[in-house]
Amino acid sequence: MTRLSSGGRIEVICGCMYSGKTEELIRRLHHVKIARQQLQAFTPKRDTRYATGNLVSHNGVRIEAQPIGSITEVFDYLHDGVQVVALDELHFLDDEPDVVLTTVQALADRGLRVIIAGLDQNFRAKPFPAMSRLLAVAEQVDKLFAICVRCGAYATRSQRMIDGRPAPFDAPTIVVGGLELYEARCRACYEAG
Ligand code: ADP
Ligand code: ZN
Predict the structure, then answer these.
(1) pLDDT of residue 179
(2) What are the pocket residues of ligand 1 if the criterion is a CB atom closer than 6 Å to any ligand atom?
C-alpha cells in the first residue's frame, strides 16, 4: 500500500449561526502562524457579509482569504510549501457534495492539514449534504453551540426570520445575512416554517 504523506488530516468545526465557528477557525490559524507554518485560507465567493478576501469573526478579528467559486479552485491557487488549508463557510459552496468530499480528501491525502468551518444544518434544521460527508471522514470534529435567543439554553439551530416570522420551509436554502435574518435557537424554541 502506498504510504500517504504524514500530517494530512481533516478538521471540521460545525454548529449553528453565531456558535463561534469562524472565531475558532481564526484561533487555530493564529496558532498555525505562531508555529511558523504556511497557510492558505479560502472563502466562498457568495459570502458577502463582509469584505471578500478576509475571514472575519463577528467580533472583528480578520485573516486574509482567497474567495473561490468552486472547491476545485483550491488547487489553482495552492502554493508550494503550504501545510495548512482553511475553508470557512463551506456550506455556501455550490459544488456537488461528493466533489467537495473528494477534493478535501485529496488535499489531506497530499499531507495537508485541512480545517473546515461551516453550518451543519440549514434553516430547515436539515443537514447540509457536503458538511455531513466531511463530518463522517474527518479526523477531528468539533460541534459548537450558540445561545438560544428565546430561552438562554444552548442553541444548535439557525432560525431564519422574515418580518418577525419563521421563514417558510420552501424559502431558498441560502440567504446571506446576519442578526436581522437569523436567530440561534435551541431544539425546543425552534419553529418549523
Ligand atoms: P459563526 O461563524 O459560528 O457564525 P462567529 O465566530 O462569527 O460565529 O461569531 C460568534 C460570536 O457571535 C460570539 O462570540 C458572540 O459574540 C456573537 N453572538 C451573537 N449572537 C449570539 C448568540 N445568540 N449566541 C452566542 N453568540 C452570539
Ligand atoms: Zn430555547
Answers:
(1) 61
(2) 15, 17-23, 57-59, 146-147, 149, 184
